[in-house]
Design goal:
Length: about 220
């Protein structure tokens, strides 16, 4: 993925300092990350499972293996891992912003339900923070900012789904709050290759540094 050369001179030269960096795992939940639950089941039941083949294939074959590698690295070498989920904490999802309320309801993404849980392969450890949001961005509706500042973190390495929605919104919020942001290109995903690439191109223009899993691991 190439950016126009002129933008390079304006983009931050982000260095990952291990003791000041965390891995932020965004929305890797059964609701929209498991082909047999939530969105996956909804599409299967309506005969539209083929419309999400790219999404679930990428999650299973690319995201889960790469995020697993990053989890191992950040748990052993950096300031740790923070998980972010999204979903309703009320029975009618009235606490969720309208832009995502319908998908929350349709995918049964309520706190306490199996759909709300993080996919089995990436389960958090007992002492790792899991912050639930009711907005697309993680900063608006969680205590993420105060937790990061308490941990003396200045760099977020972001992985998860969806690149063009919650990952992008969280990254842009973080950038405006003066955090350094890295988006891991092969540990994020959305609904098509074109959407993935265009999202990375957009985020790489001032908002974040785009790196691969191997590049991040080699850096830290």
């Amino acid at each position: 993925m190439k950016q126009p050369k002129f933008i390079d001179s304006f983009s931050q030269n982000i260095e990952i300092v291990p003791e000041k960096a965390v891995l932020l795992v965004i929305d890797m939940q059964n609701a929209t990350g498991n082909r047999n639950l939530g969105l996956g089941k909804l599409l299967q039941d309506s005969g539209k499972a083929d419309t999400a083949t790219y999404r679930f294939d990428r999650i299973e074959n690319v995201l889960v293996p790469n995020i697993t590698k990053l989890l191992n690295t950040f748990r052993s070498k950096c300031n740790g891992v923070i998980y972010v989920t999204y979903g309703a904490e009320t029975s009618d999802a009235r606490d969720v912003v309208p832009t995502i309320r319908t998908i929350v309801q349709k995918t049964n993404n309520f706190v306490g339900n199996r759909e709300h849980e993080i996919v089995d392969q990436l389960r958090p450890l007992t002492d790792e923070l899991v912050l639930n949001k009711t907005t697309q961005g993680a900063f608006r509706s969680t205590r993420l900012d105060s937790a990061l500042r308490a941990m003396n973190v200045d760099t977020l390495v972001c992985v998860g789904v969806s690149t063009n929605n919650c990952v992008a919104m969280t990254a842009m919020e973080a950038s405006d709050l003066q955090y350094k942001v890295v988006i891991v290109s092969d540990a994020t995903g959305t609904d098509s290759h074109e959407m993935q690439e265009s999202s990375l191109t957009m985020l790489g223009r001032l908002w974040a540094k785009i790196m691969s899993t191997d590049e991040v691991i080699k850096t830290v």
